[in-house]
Amino acid sequence: MAGRRLRDAVQQELQSEGTFKDTEVVIAGLSNVYTHYITTYEEYQVQRYEGASTIYGPHTLTAYVHKFRGLARAIAQDKVSELPVGPQPPLFTKNLFNLLPQAAADKTPVNSSFGDVLQQVDPYYRQGSALDLTLTLQQVDPYYRQGSALDLTLTLQQVDPYYRQGSALDLTLTLTLQQVDPYYRQGDVVSITFVAGNPRHSGDIRDKTFVTVEIYDNRTDSWEVVHTDASWETRFHWLKGSKGRSNTTVEWFVPPSAPGGYYRIKHFGHYKQMKGLRPVITPYEGTSDVFRVSPSFYYQWPPASRCQPPSTVFFFYFSARPSGHELDPSTDLLLL
Predict the structure, then answer these.
(1) CB–CB of 194/116 below 8 Å?
(2) How many angstroms separate the CA atoms of 209 and 290, rounded?
(3) What's the N-to-C CA distance of the chain in angstroms?
(4) Where in this chain does the record put each Neutral/alkaline non-lysosomal ceramidase C-terminal domain (predicted)?
(5) Contact 254, 293 (CB under 8 A)
(6) 2-16 and 60-76 helices, crossing angle to 10°
(7) What are the binding residues for Zn(2+)?
(8) Residues annotated as binding site?
(9) According to the 3-state scheme, what is the secondary structure of the chain?
(10) pLDDT tens-digit profile of 288-309?
């Protein structure tokens, strides 16, 4: 009941100023309350648990209503800065002490620097590499997802005009990969590992982040941050090693709402090194390779992305059945 009376008093004060006529007032007094219970004058007279716990007497609520009316009036008149500050609670930070020892200096493996990538987002074939495949009809899916290959060279060696289901179809495929990017779908987990410093050396980073997931915006030719370490979709794992070395693994759980496009992951941190007897804290950052996220199980052109798709898409169809027969997914291979 005390909360209702306080709420109604604040609402009446706001409405009387004419600025907040349709305002709904909500009071949450579950934290930073120094006066313990606050009951109405009537409840205090009964002296049950709540009334007996109102330690500043029966007029506690009246005092609160008076103060909150003044605060509501100042808000409506935009005069909050003119209110008296009043007494401040005591600060005990100067009397606190910490038993946790200082973190040791950071080191890197040989021939590496802080922020270097130890494990990239995904293994992939680079431009000019070759991939040799032998396909067996009985073990081949009827559909293959469209990969990253934009330039495909095929060499068929001694292929019979007709194969029965279960027989082996030997194909030698030489793929020349041009501008290949790793490929992820919505729901996948992107993982990358960096050479890192101790996160404790980053100090107070409440207004910063250890991780960003960024998407490339083709319209502005720039990278835009879509997730940080405060996002539910990201994970930041720090693994302490020996001799001051440590690694950081960043994971991004690609949400269903992620737009298709080109992404990268960045890691930010600080490392400590000793300059004589003086510790020196230095910032660093690392960046993953660019990778691609598709909005659906199969590629769709044009993709739902702000990035430009490749100008040419090749479709190749291989059939192990004679001409004139209908497509049979159990024996025919469709490569997109």
Answers:
(1) yes
(2) 20
(3) 69
(4) 68-131, 177-293
(5) yes
(6) 30
(7) 37
(8) 37
(9) CHHHHHHHHHHHHHHHCCCCCCCCCCCCCCCCCCCCCCCCHHHHHHCCHHHHCCCCCCCHHHHHHHHHHHHHHHHHCCCHHHCCCCCCCCCCHHHCCCCCCCCCCCCCCCCCCCCCEEECCCCCCCCCCCCCCCEEHHHCCCEECCCCCCEEEEECCCCCCCCCCCCEECCEEEEECCCCCCEEECCCEEEEEEEECCHHHHCCCCCCCCEEEEEEECCCCEEEEEEECCCCCEEEEEEECCCCCEEEEEEEECCCCCCEEEEEEEEEEEEEEEECCEEEEEEEEEECCCEEEECCCCCCCCCCECCCCCCCCCCEEEECCCCCCCCCCCCEEEEC
(10) 989 988 875 544 444 444 444 3
The amino acid at residue 18 is: G
pLDDT, tens digit, 9 for 90 and up, residues 17-60 = 877 888 888 887 665 566 788 899 999 999 999 899 899 999 99
Domains of the chain: 2-82 (no CATH), 117-122+184-294 (2.60.40.2300), 125-180+306-336 (no CATH)
pTM for this prediction: 0.47
CA-CA distance, 271 to 198, in Å (whole number)?
6
